[in-house]
Amino acid sequence: MTQHKRGILGWLWFISWRAVLALLLLLLLLLVTLRFVPPPTSAFMLQSPYPPRYQWVNIDSLPAHLPLALVASEDQRFVQHYGVDFAAISKALEQYDDGGGLRGASTISQQTAKNLLLWPGRSLVRKGLEAGLALSLELVWGKKRILEVYLNIAEFGKGIYGVEAASQHYFGKAARHLTVNQAARLAVVLPSPRKRDPTQLTPYLEQRVQWVERQMRQLGYGYLAPMLK
Question: Which of 11, 64, 125, 195 has its CA 20 to 30 A from that of 203?
Answer without folding.
Answer: 64
